[in-house]
Each structure stands twice: as structure tokens, then as C-alpha cells.
Amino acid sequence: MLETLPQAIVTGVLLGGLYAIIGIGMSLIFGIMKLTNIAHGDIMILGTFLTMHITQSLTGNPIIGLLLTIAIMLAFAFAIQNFLINKVITKGAEPALLVTFGLSIIISNALFLVFGANTHTIPSTLVTTNLIRTAHVSVSMMYAVSFIVAVAVIVALSLVMNRTSFGRAIRAASSDTVMSELLGINTKHMYIFAMMLTVVTASIAGMLVGMTFPFYPTTGTQYLIIAFGVVVIGGMGSLLGTLVGGIILGLAQLVGANLIGATYQQLIGFIVLLVILAVRPQGLLSKAARK
Amino acid sequence: MNNIIEISGLNVMHGDLRALADVSMNIESGKIVSIIGANGAGKSTLLNTIMGVHAPAAGAIRFEGRDITKMRTSKIASLGLAMTPEGSRVFADMSVMENLLMGAYLPGAKKAKAGQLEKVYDMFPVLKEKSAQLASFLSGGQRQMLSIARAIMMNPKVIICDEISLGLAPVIIHDIYAKVKELNAEGITFLLVEQEIKRSLRHADYSYVMVKGRVVMEGKSSGLSREAVSDAYFGINQFA
Predict the structure, then answer these.
(1) Is some CB atom of chain B closer than 8 A to the CB atom of A163?
(2) What CA–CA distance (Å, rounded) separates A43 from A174?
(3) Which fold has domain A2-279?
(4) Higher per-residue confidence, B240 vs A150
(5) What is the mean pLDDT of residues A185-214?
(6) Where along chain B do its domains lie?
(7) Can you name the CATH fold of B1-80+158-168+184-240?
(8) Are residues B53 and A181, on separate chains, in Cβ contact within 8 Å?
């Protein structure tokens, strides 16, 4: 067991990067609209299926598949935010949460209708390539790419949020909607933009997930739980916290599996989550304790 | 007379309670107009209704002749109406500079950003000193200054101030009113809410007195006596 520990740590950290990019959209939506998006996992898997389908039917290049997927997902984000969530978000958190619950069911059933119950993958040579391979540790190219993309997306998002007028407006809308409106910021538009940012990250995450693991129409729920874990550990709404949360969850799962047994991988991850919740309920990097 | 804001027959309900009853006002362009009233007189409700934060049950609000009664708040702001709400409401987790830049969010204000920033730093040197600090580190008076400065950044035609002097030291209040006069001289119309009669009559060109959601007295400040306003304020004339 001890000789495989370095491998577990390396894979855990890299897997954490993938977890972070899965969770980041959920964290954004919560930070900005105080909305727990139950459909987050399904939205991501929708992106995975779209990328797979477009890649297969067009050039076979997943990057082009991803770009077209993002274009479709942006229209989808506009539609669900403008016509569904924005209609109920002013009535409090619960109605909007129920809307996303409904969306979750609709998306997974629609995927089931179109693609059937079979397991799919997005084929990629990254999976079979190793970045580093020594006697004790090997680093899969796929995991390394996921980690790098996750860090890049998080850095890009924090730059947008902290350095641009658009990012400031989103932050303002999330901290005081009335004051933001008084300054001329249409907060409903900001929510639409936030949902659009979210689906871009979810589409990227969806492609990486689809290349790394097999997926089927109901896989979304599984990733919703991971996204939950990531944002709860890191602190809802904190971008850097998402990365930390992802790495802690990834490490807990793989190191735990290494020490106790692979069948307990999921369980150990969520035990760590519960412990962190008990000790620091606001999350590790959250700015302030929430009431 | 050139009225920039015209309010007619405004009724606002808070649930079953009538917060404003048949309020009509004309705010003349280029003037300082104040609304005097005790807590619960409906002053804040009136300001929030002008800005589209509350929806009226009846009545109309016009800005430069245009009906804004059912307009979205952000749209009203974009027409040239700025408001400093009660309690300043600066963005505590943003720096002083970022708060000011929030005022320059709208396209028109964004173009004038550099000049306006210089202007507010000139008016409030303390904000320049603290420009990189988080707004949460400011004192109450400094937050109020930041709130006004943020409104100025919007390059507005009208600034609506909800109790800018509340809880501030007399020296700072004096300072803030001096700035109001300065901005008014440049052509910005002010609509102020005040609890203190004397201060209101001294600084405003025209005053309205509100009691329990109604306008009970109005007139040029020079023509209103403190005693008469005070009587109206405390509702004495209602029983006379």
C-alpha cells in the first residue's frame, strides 16, 4: 500500500483539478444568485453528449465539437435563465431551486430518449498517453491536461471577475441587487451572463469528463454530488476555494482508497466532506460565515 | 416653470398598509428640494417609488416629461437619476476605487470616467487617500461621501439623497451640504430627505412636509416658518 501512496497522491491532486472545474459553475451560480443549481450535473452531461455527438458527426476533432457545443449551450443558458429561473428568482431561493430540479429531470430524460441508456465515451488519445512514467509514479496525460485546464479556467474567471467592469457588475449584483439597479445595472441581465459563464465552464468540464470516464444519460447526478462536495469544502462562491475543494476531495478519495480499499473511495470522500462541514460549515475559503 | 420630476396622485401600499396617499409633487429643475418628515412618514417609500424599487398602486411619475412609473430601476437610473440610499449601501467587499467605478457603469458615465474621477477626488480628498482600501474600512461619514461620490460618477441630472446626514457628526454634515450646494451650482437638481427642519429649510429652495404618507405642507423654504413646519411635522394642526 505504501509503495502505491505517491501514485494515489499525484492522481488525487490531478483528479481534484477535474473536480474543481466540474464544481466551478455551481459555485458561480450560488455566489451570484444564491441559487443551488440542482441541474448543474445534468447541464454538464448535456455538454458531454453534445460534444460527443458533434465530434462524431463532424470532423472527429473534439475541440471543434466543444466550440460548437459551447455555442449551443450559450443559447440554452440564455433560454433557461431568461424564461425560467429569472421569472422565479425574485420570489426567493426555493422556487428557483425547484425549477432547476425540474430541469435536471427533463435534461436526463431527454438525453435518455435521444441517446438511449448505453454507456458512451469521447475517444481521446490523451487517455492512453503518459506524461511521466517512472517506477513508482506515472502521470496520465488526460489527468494532467484536466488539471491544467481547470487552473487556467479558474485564473481566467478570477481575472474577469476582479479586473473587468463586467466582473465588477456581476459582483455588485450578487452583493446588493437594489443598489446595483440604482447604478444602472440590470441585475437580470447579469444573472443571464452568469449562467452563460457557467455553461461555458460546464461544457469544458463535460468534455474532459467524457474523455476520462464513461458516461450515460443519468450520470449527471453523480457529478452534481461531486460539485456539491467541491463547493461545500471550498466555500460557496469562492473561485480559489473551488480548486482547493476539488483537490481535497480528489485526494481524500484516492488516498483513502489506497489505504482502506477501492470500494470505499466515494464513501471516504464524503466522510471528509462531512468532517469539514462540521468543523468549518462556511467552507475553507469562504469570505465570511453565512447565516 | 420647468419641472424635471412630476409626481401626481401617487398611492403606494405595503401589504394592507397605505404607505403613500395621493402624493403629488413638482421638482423644479436646478433646485434643491427637500422632503421633511418623521420616521414612517413615507419619505423613503416615496424616493424608492420614484426609482422604481416599489411599484405604486396608483398615480404617475414623470421625468423630463417621460412616464417612468412602471420602468425598471436600472432603466430609470440610465435616464439620469441617481440615488444615494439610506445607509449609503457602498459595496463593502470592493475597494473605494471599485465602488466609484461602479458609478461609471453606464455607457455615458463610462466615457466621462476619467474626468469625473478627478472631480470626486478633488471634492473628497479622503477618498483619494483611501482609494485602494476596502470600503468596509471607511467610517460612517466617509461611506456617505463615497455614496455621494459614486452618484456623481453617474454624471446624473438629478441626485436623490435619502437621509445623507443620519448619524453623522455636525462638522461632516456641514461639509456634505457644502458639496451639495457646489454640485447644485453646476446644475444638478437635488431631492433630499431630511428629518431636521432647521437644516432642511436652510439648505433647500423648496420644501415638502410629509406626515403619515401625505403631503401636509409645501412652499418655498424662505416662506415657511420653522414653527409652522414643526406644527405640521408633529401633526398639531390636524387637531386644531
Answers:
(1) no
(2) 22
(3) ABC transporter involved in vitamin B12 uptake, BtuC (1.10.3470)
(4) A150
(5) 96
(6) 1-80+158-168+184-240, 89-156
(7) Rossmann fold (3.40.50)
(8) yes
Interface of B with A (CB under 8 A): 51-53, 72-75, 77-78, 82-83, 85, 89, 91-94, 98, 101-103, 105-106, 109-110, 150, 154
User: Which cell numbers hold the place of A122?
Assistant: 469521447
Question: What is the Cα–Cα distance from A17 to A13, expressed in whole angstroms?
Answer: 7
CA quadruple B225, B227, B232, B234: dihedral sign: positive
From chain A, the residues in CB contact with B109 under 8 A are 184
pTM of the entire predicted model: 0.90
Q: Closest partner residue to A179 among B89, B93, B98, by Cβ?
A: B89
Looking up cell 454507456 gives A119
Minimum mean pLDDT range among A58-67, A77-86, A222-231, B223-232: B223-232
- Residues A15 and A144: their CA atoms lie apart, in Å, by 9
Give the mean pLDDT of A190-212. Answer: 97
Residues from chain B contacting residue A169 (CB–CB below 8 Å) = 102, 105
- Which of B115, B117, B118 has its CA nearest to residue B150? B117
Q: Which residues of B touch A175 (CB under 8 A)?
A: 91-93
Band (A238; pLDDT cuts 50, 70, 90): confident
CA distances, A182 to each of B59, B70, B149, B169 (Å)? 21, 15, 14, 27
Chain A partners of B74 at a C-beta cutoff of 8 Å?
A: 180-181, 183-187
3-state secondary structure of A193: helix
Work out the angle between the directed axes of helices A220-234 and A5-33 (0-180°, nearest 10): 80
Instruction: Provide the Cα torsion B189, B194, B197, B199; round to 10°.
Output: -60
